[in-house]
Amino acid sequence: MNAPVSDPPGGRRVLPIAGGPPAERADAVRNRRRILAAAAEMIATRGADALSMDEVARAAGVGVGTVYRRFRDRASLVYAVIDDREREFQRDFLAGPPPLGPGAAPAERLRAFLHALADRTEEQADLLLAAETDSAYARFNDGSYALYRMHLAMLVARHRPGADAVYLADALLAPLAANLFLYQRRVLGMDLDRVKAGLDAMLHGICPA
């Protein structure tokens, strides 16, 4: 039996924006900024594949233990580098104007979300690839993915009551894994409009008008 996906009494479901760090000491804030700046510089100059926790520590002027205390692995560090753009994207689909934000029909919001996520993936595909492939389940362990799934499952359940909304949410997100996205864009030569048209076709099969 499928778990229901519904709004709380009296209002719209409010989903948390992922990635907000707790208040920190001034020295901890400085260390975090140094680490992120060093990681961003390394990625910009040498590519995400060259990112090394040891080298980031040396470039930031901190101990490697400090890096690992702040970021448990390379995937966490890469996600922190891309976090600002992710926060903006989450604000847009949680509280921005329709059709991406609240106020449009579920099917319209689903389509707007998939197109916006395709644009978001296009912007930082190499960084997302590095983060998502750092371990077998890195993509699914990230808080952003859980938020995407919850958001899409909520919309699917509104459009198709009784459907396996969580499974269908995963199915809608699968084509936007960074490795498949980059393969289609760079190896197969698909342009972004073609990718979005494919997402529309899949969405129509899952949530027909």
UniProtKB/TrEMBL annotation:
Source taxon at top rank: Bacteria
Keywords (A to Z) from UniProt: DNA-binding
Region (Disordered): 1-25
Ranges for domain HTH tetR-type: 29-89
Xref: InterPro entries: Homeodomain-like_sf, HTH-type_TetR-like_transc_reg, HTH_TetR
GO molecular function: DNA-binding transcription factor activity; transcription cis-regulatory region binding
PROSITE patterns linked to this entry: HTH_TETR_2 (PS50977)
DNA-binding region listed in the record: 52-71
Name this protein carries in UniProt: AcrR family transcriptional regulator
Organism whose genome encodes this protein: Actinomadura namibiensis
Lineage: Bacteria, Bacillati, Actinomycetota, Actinomycetes, Streptosporangiales
